[in-house]
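Subject line: Sequence and fold of a protein, written as structure tokens
Area: Proteins and the way their chains fold up in space.
Start of record: The labelled sequence and token lines come straight after this line.
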Amino acid sequence: MGDVELEIAGRLEQHRTVVAWLRWALTQEERTIRDLERQAEDERRREAARRERSWTVTASRAAEGHPVLHRGNCGLVRHGYGDLLDAEGVRAAVEAYPDLEMCQVCRPWGSLGTDQPPTRPGPDGIAFP
């Protein structure tokens, strides 16, 4: 073999080594990405479970309305709006807002273990839950 052939063979071996290392590095990065995606999904699930076990109070949209108690995962409440409350926090909210109403969409009374609130007459005598 001549010097040129040895030089080419050596360069070829170097490039093969680089390709093998790049494959190994790619495998490591793909594993890291999968682990991070799994962690993000686990965190999303934990947050969803925490919302399901919590409640939140929103202010009334109408000037003459009352604050409304919702389950933490109620679709009527934007995520990040208001603090999530535990059962003790709900008790404190009921004491702070005696006119507190319960959302008719998410029906928080079931998750609180209480009965559905009684209906009350509206301004035109129409019964509202």
